[in-house]
Every structure is written in structure tokens, then in C-alpha cells.
């Protein structure tokens, strides 16, 4: 219950944001829902006057369709032929008193009867405001479809019945296809209607954005709740519920986190007789926890193939994402500054720099703040499961992030800034980029989300990266001819990060490192740079060192002879300009022990040596040696 309690406390800590409209990066609206409310995509908007007269109507654009509506326990979970009206906005078959008269099909009973009685109870309650009464007065006249037909929103066939599905034969007496048929998935009968109140004397807040409307229904519905029981979330005796919210990930999501409708299967057999014996959750706690979860997902959740990765702090403060790379976490601390040689930082020095960057988050959070990490996904359309949950002290969480980005650290060049320019940054790659490095850019969402889940304990629990992930990235980085140049460069730097998590090397070249694999990697880098120097900028084909890289990683001694032989024409072309690199090859090769110069396959260390040596040679600073240096 701890995750439910923290979601409940998140709602309580953000009561001032209830009903406040926010926008995603794609301009889609969302809000922290009031209790007893949900969202629905509306197709038709009807305006009525304060006196309860029809004013006008329009077909709603898809961009404006999301509508916050009041709901009951029954209506929030209605399915199939069950009659459970929403209290105000609902489908045409519920809100239109003349639905049957215009050919509307009903299965058993007329839904309007239940709908109008519920609305009447609200309108006559002491909590009702004028807008509710105006809408009820209009709907009680039972002429909604008649008004919409006259307004040319809904359309009838030759027999005066609602057209079920648009057909070209109707063009003869209607004309072009009406807009209502473009916004509804089924026929006109499935149109969802929302209501608004118009005044010629004042500007009124939209009904679905009106805080007074929210409070009116919450107070009205709260009086209808009964059956107090001990709430396992709050520890208080409150009205309980067995019907819990859906639409958690999006408006069409039918999966529920809490469900107990299997009375004939194995849910309770041998343990309990009734579902509330397992756990009793109050209506208020369920509503607030689920609404907080929906809000957080819209606000800061990561969604991969319908799997939600969510990190939050109860007071609503922004928290660094453990699945993000160092550039996203704090760009200014991880980006390379040419005035400050961050390339030569040790892991501890980089950790100190990253810790300073996170001080902003640390200072905004209270001393008692905790960080919640949650992963949810569904195996079926009706069941949503919590796959992972952790509640951590903020200091522990931030320290784990610092350690992750300072140990799984390498130099990366695949990110772009706001000017669409590539930037270099130090730190760990994102979990998604690790997935693409290990399994390729065409890896399915199922594979990506699985890897992201496996990587999470490595970040926040400081566990070792699974060896199969490291090996897969190593093998792909060792086979550059199988991918485009940009993809290989990205795969190479990500693989180096994963390998360095275990080895703990610096990004800068370690000239004192005499490890066999590291030295072989340096040799390969020097050969690559030398050949590229001879080919010039215009030539884009891969060097022999790159083409033989896969073979080199498996049989270094044998393949090095082939690579060195292929270097001779390029050394001759460069003449004295090749002296520095040629002497560097001799110097590095001489440091490999004779017994180590064999065909035993190379470990991931050779990639670290390759990257660091190549990076060192391509640096302009102090790398041009008069007439025999290296230029890039």
C-alpha cells in the first residue's frame, strides 16, 4: 500500500493544482483531476441559456475534444449493456430524451430515464449551482436531437431516422459529408455530448473548467456514499469502494491497477470469502491516488510500449530521471567546456562536478523529502500491474545518481543542443540509448522497455550491469561495417560507458596503462588516424583498421599484421608527416609483452584504449607537431 499512500499524499500536497489546466510539449491539455471526475473525448458541444433554452451547438475539433466530466463509481466502470449514466455529459443515447423517437436503438430500458433522474437529484440538491439547473431544465424538455438536427449537427435519412453510417447515397439530399461523421468512430448514436452555459451579459467559465461545478458535484456525491470501513491506505474509517479508476495511461486505457471481480476463480479460494477481506480502500483514497498517478504520468512519465516509467516527489518538485542521460539530467555540468579540460577529469572529480550540478535539486527538496520510482504495465487490456516500486530518501537517491553518472562515464557526441548542433558531454547514456546500442536502432519497444526495467536497479541500487547487455554492446561496437558512421560512433561511446562502469578508467588517454587489451586498442586507433590522414577529408570510405576491427577483436596479433601491411602505402604517401604516428605505433607496440602478443580475443578494454587514443590524436590542442604532427 506504500505506493498508494505516497500517491495519496502527492494529491494532498498539490490541492492548489486541482483543475488547473496544464499542457504537454505537444500542447495537449491535462490536469490534476478532482475526485469523482474523469476525462472523456467529446464530439458535440451544446450551449444552453441560463433559462434552460437551446442556444447553439457545434462539432468539436479533435484538438479540443478532451473534457473533464463528473462521474460516479458505476459510470466510471460501465461496460457492455450496463446502464450507468454519467451525471452531466454523456453519450447521445443517455442525454437525448427523444433518442428513441428518432430511431435510436436501446437494448432493454431507455438510458435517458436513469440519466435525467440522476441529474434531477443533483439539480434539486442544496449543492447545485445555476449551471446545473440550466442544463437540467433544457434536457427535461426531451428535444435535444430535434434541436441538433435543426442546427445541422445531426442528420436524418429519408425516413426521419438518425443515419447510422455515412453513405454516398445521402449526398443527393444532404451534400458533402457532414463533419460529425469525421469525428465519431461509429455512427451518430455514439457521439459524446458536452454541455455549456451561455450568457449575453457576462463571460462564463466553461462548465468542464469551472471549479464551482467540481465542488458542487463532489459535495452532492459525497452525501450518497456509505458503507464505512477501515481504509488500508489512510488508516481512517471512510466510505469504501470496490470500483477503482481506469484510464490511467490515456483516455482509452481500460486497464485497472486494483480489481476484484473474479468471484468464481482462484482469487479468494482457500484464503478469503470476499474481496474487502483482502484489503479495503476508501473511495476518497482511491480517487486521489489514481488521479495523482494520471497527473504525474501526463506531467513527467516516460511511456515505452504502454509501460510507464515514473519518478516523482510528493510535493510535486521535479526530480532527475534515472533513465535519462547526463545531458538531460543537467546539461551545463556534463557538456564539455573548451576552457575547462573536463576530458582529463578523474571519475571522482567528475562526481564532484555532477554533485554541484544536482545541488539545485537538493536545495529545492525538503529535508524529509522522499523519491518514488514506479514502473507499471499491463499484460492484458483489463489488468495493470506494478512491476517495480521504490521509495528512497532524497539524499540516497541523488548520491546514487551521482555515482552512476561518474562511474558509467564516457565522452558522447550524439546529442544536439537548441541550435541543432552536436555537443560533447560527459556522463552516462540514457537507458533507451543503451538498448539501441546493445540491440540496434530497430529494436522493438518490447525489448527497449525490458532493458530499461533491467537497468533501473543498476542506477538506483548500484548493481552491476547485466553481462549480456555489456557483451551485446561490445560486439556491435566491434563491427562498424555493419552500420552507418553516426550509428557506430554512438554505439562505440555507449559501449565504452558500459565497459568503463566495471573498469573505472579515465576518458582521457592513459599513457601509463600497459594492459594488453588497452594497448592493442591504441594501436588500432593510431592506424585508423594515420590512414584517414593520408586519405584526406574528401574520402569517406572506412579505413582498413575500421574494416578489420571485428576480426582484430577476435584475433589481434594475426589481424594486426594485415593492418600494418596495409598502412605502408599510406605512410609512403604522407612521407615525413607520418613520422609521429609511425613512431607512436612502435612505442605502443613495444610495450606489449612478447607472451601477450597473441591471438587471444580482446576484452572490452580495447575499445576504451581505441576511443581514448583516437580522441587524443584528434584534439587540436597541443597535437599539431610542426611539420610531422597530426591534423584532423
TrEMBL record:
Superkingdom field: Bacteria
InterPro entries on file: CRISPR-assoc_prot_Csd1-typ
Name the record gives this protein: Type I-C CRISPR-associated protein Cas8c/Csd1
Organism, as annotated: Heyndrickxia sporothermodurans
Amino acid at each position: 500500500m506504500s505506493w498508494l499512500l505516497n500517491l495519496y499524499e502527492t494529491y494532498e500536497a498539490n490541492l492548489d493544482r486541482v483543475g488547473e489546466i496544464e499542457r504537454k510539449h505537444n500542447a495537449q491539455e491535462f490536469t490534476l483531476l478532482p475526485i469523482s471526475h474523469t476525462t472523456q473525448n467529446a464530439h458535440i458541444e451544446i450551449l444552453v441559456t441560463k433559462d434552460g433554452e437551446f442556444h447553439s451547438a457545434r462539432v468539436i475539433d479533435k484538438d479540443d475534444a478532451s473534457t473533464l466530466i463528473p462521474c460516479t463509481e458505476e459510470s466510471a466502470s460501465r461496460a457492455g449493456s450496463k446502464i450507468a449514466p454519467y451525471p452531466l455529459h454523456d453519450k447521445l443515447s443517455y442525454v437525448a430524451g427523444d433518442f428513441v423517437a428518432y430511431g435510436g436503438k436501446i437494448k432493454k430500458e431507455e438510458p435517458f430515464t436513469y440519466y435525467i433522474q440522476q441529474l434531477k437529484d443533483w439539480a434539486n440538491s442544496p449543492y447545485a449551482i445555476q449551471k446545473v439547473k440550466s442544463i437540467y431544465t433544457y434536457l427535461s424538455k426531451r428535444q435535444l436531437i430535434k434541436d441538433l438536427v435543426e442546427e445541422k449537427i445531426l442528420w436524418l435519412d429519408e425516413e426521419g431516422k438518425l443515419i447510422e453510417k455515412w453513405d454516398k447515397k445521402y449526398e443527393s439530399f444532404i451534400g458533402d459529408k457532414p463533419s460529425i461523421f469525421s469525428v465519431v468512430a461509429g455512427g451518430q448514436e455514439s457521439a459524446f455530448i458536452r454541455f455549456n452555459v451561455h450568457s449575453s451579459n457576462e463571460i462564463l467559465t466553461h462548465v468542464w473548467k469551472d471549479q464551482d461545478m467540481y465542488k458542487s458535484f463532489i459535495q452532492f456525491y459525497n452525501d450518497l456514499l456509505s458503507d464505512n470501513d477501515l481504509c488500508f491506505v489512510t488508516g481512517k474509517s471512510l466510505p469504501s469502494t470496490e470500483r477503482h479508476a481506469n484510464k490511467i495511461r490515456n483516455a482509452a486505457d481500460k486497464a485497472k491497477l486494483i480489481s476484484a471481480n473474479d468471484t468464481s476463480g482462484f482469487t479468494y479460494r482457500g484464503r478469503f470469502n470476499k474481496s474487502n477481506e483482502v484489503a479495503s480502500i476508501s473511495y476518497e483514497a482511491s480517487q486521489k491516488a489514481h488521479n495523482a498517478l494520471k497527473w504525474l504520468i501526463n506531467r513527467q512519465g516516460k511511456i515505452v510500449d504502454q509501460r510507464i516509467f515514473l519518478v516523482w516527489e510528493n510535493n510535486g518538485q521535479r526530480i532527475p530521471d534515472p533513465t535519462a542521460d547526463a545531458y538531460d539530467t543537467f546539461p551545463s555540468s556534463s557538456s564539455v567546456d573548451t576552457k575547462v579540460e573536463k576530458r582529463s577529469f578523474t571519475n571522482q572529480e567528475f562526481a564532484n562536478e555532477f554533485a554541484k550540478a544536482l545541488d539545485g535539486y537538493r536545495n529545492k527538496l525538503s529535508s524529509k523529502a522522499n523519491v518514488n520510482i514506479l514502473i507499471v504495465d499491463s499484460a492484458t487490456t483489463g489488468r495493470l500491474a506494478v512491476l517495480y516500486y521504490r521509495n528512497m530518501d532524497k539524499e540516497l537517491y541523488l548520491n546514487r545518481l551521482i555515482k552512476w553518472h561518474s562511474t558509467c562515464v564516457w565522452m558522447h557526441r550524439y546529442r544536439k543542443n537548441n541550435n541543432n548542433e552536436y555537443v560533447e558531454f560527459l556522463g552516462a547514456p540514457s537507458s533507451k540509448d543503451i538498448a539501441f546500442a546493445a540491440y540496434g536502432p530497430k529494436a522493438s519497444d518490447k525489448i527497449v522497455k525490458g532493458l530499461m526495467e533491467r537497468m533501473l536497479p543498476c542506477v538506483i541500487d548500484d548493481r552491476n550491469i547485466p553481462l549480456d547487455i555489456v557483451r551485446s554492446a561490445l560486439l556491435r561496437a566491434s563491427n562498424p561495417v555493419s552500420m552507418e558512421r553516426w550509428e557506430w560512433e554512438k554505439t562505440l561511446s555507449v559501449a565504452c560507458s558500459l565497459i568503463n562502469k566495471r573498469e573505472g578508467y579515465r576518458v582521457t588517454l592513459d599513457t601509463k596503462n600497459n594492459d594488453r587489451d588497452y594497448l592493442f586498442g591504441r594501436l588500432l586507433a593510431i592506424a585508423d588516424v594515420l590512414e584517414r590522414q593520408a586519405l584526406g577529408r574528401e574520402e569517406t570510405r572506412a579505413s582498413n583498421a575500421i574494416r578489420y576491427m571485428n576480426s582484430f577483436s577476435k584475433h589481434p596479433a594475426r589481424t594486426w599484421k594485415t593492418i600494418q601491411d596495409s598502412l605502408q602505402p599510406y605512410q609512403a604517401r604522407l612521407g615525413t608527416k607520418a613520422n609521429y604516428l609511425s613512431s607512436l605505433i612502435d612505442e605502443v607496440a613495444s610495450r606489449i609483452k612478447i607472451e601477450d602478443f597473441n591471438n587471444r580475443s580482446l576484452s572490452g578494454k580495447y575499445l576504451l584504449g581505441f576511443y581514448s587514443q583516437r580522441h587524443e590524436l584528434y584534439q587540436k590542442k597541443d597535437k599539431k607537431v610542426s611539420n610531422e604532427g597530426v591534423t584532423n
